[in-house]
From TrEMBL:
It comes from Trichoplusia ni. GO terms for cellular component: membrane. Residues 35-128, 137-227 form the Ig-like domain. InterPro entries: CD80_C2-set (IPR013162), Ig-like_dom (IPR007110), Ig-like_dom_sf (IPR036179), Ig-like_fold (IPR013783), Ig_sub (IPR003599), Ig_V-set (IPR013106). This is Uncharacterized protein LOC113496396.
């Protein structure tokens, strides 16, 4: 008998390597003041892959890209409200100078891998740009002479700002939360794209009242305080003056 054939079994093990690009984190300042600068960072993990490009968008419009294959690797596109400082920008951050109100918007970082995968990942965050002048709010209606128990009728208006400031009334150290005392006039447009907020106060009067109006944007605040002295005399001034004159006339006749 011939020898039996020998069969060799080869077991092949296939290991599938998955390279998954991911954005570790994006950092966009949530609130910046007009005229300031801002640094936006995009931290990513290629997990073994090679970087093809990093692109930044504001409201879906590209304004900066970094491509290591190019020389120079950086390029900034013209976009209203966006001024990129290329010397301070890299593959993981973009530096913007002299922010304007038009700089506000939704910022997105998009990272792509080299061929053959061309995997991409993205993340986004909103940046608000504000303008808050040094002027304090303006209070009107407190100049008139109030009688006791006469309803208080005053308004507070912010200086021209952006976005519209939040207003709060404080009476004798107590914040007013009773909506029946407050009249919200909302925000009205002003010059240069700014806004003015107005909040009315309708409250019972007391003999002496300390009124404070506070305007806030984020952690910034401006305030104005006025004092109201309520006339508690049962005689009004013209009538009291007539009584004094009559007394003097009587005194002269008697003498």
């Amino acid at each position: 008998m011939g020898s039996l054939p020998v069969f060799w079994c080869f077991i092949f093990t296939y290991i599938k390597v998955s390279i998954c690009l991911r954005i570790v984190g994006i950092s966009v300042p949530p609130l910046k003041q007009r005229g300031e600068s801002a640094t936006l960072t995009c931290d990513y993990d290629l997990e073994g892959g090679r970087l093809y490009s990093v692109k930044w968008y504001r409201d879906n419009e590209e304004f900066y890209r970094y491509m290591p294959r190019l020389r120079p690797p950086q390029h900034a596109h013209k976009l209203d409200g966006v001024r990129v400082d290329l010397e301070k920008s890299t593959a993981r951050r973009v530096h913007m100078r002299e922010l304007t109100l038009k700089s506000r918007g939704l910022y997105r970082c998009e990272v792509s891998e080299e061929a053959p995968s061309f995997h991409s990942a993205q993340s986004e965050a909103f940046m608000e740009v504000y303008y808050f002048p040094r002027e304090t709010p303006r209070i009107t209606g407190h100049e008139r002479a109030y009688q006791l128990k006469e309803p208080l009728d005053v308004n507070c208006s912010s200086a021209k700002s952006f976005p519209a400031p939040d207003l709060q009334w404080v009476v004798d150290g107590q914040k007013i939360t009773d909506r029946s005392w407050l009249i919200a006039f909302g925000a009205k447009p002003a010059s240069q794209g700014l806004l003015v907020s107005t909040l009315g106060l309708r409250a019972p009067t007391k003999q002496r009242m300390k009124l404070k109006c506070v305007a806030t944007i984020g952690t910034h605040r401006r305030e104005r305080t006025v004092i109201i002295e309520v006339n508690t005399s049962c005689w009004n001034k013209p009538f009291s003056l007539l009584i004094i004159i009559a007394i003097k006339i009587i005194c002269v006749k008697i003498s």
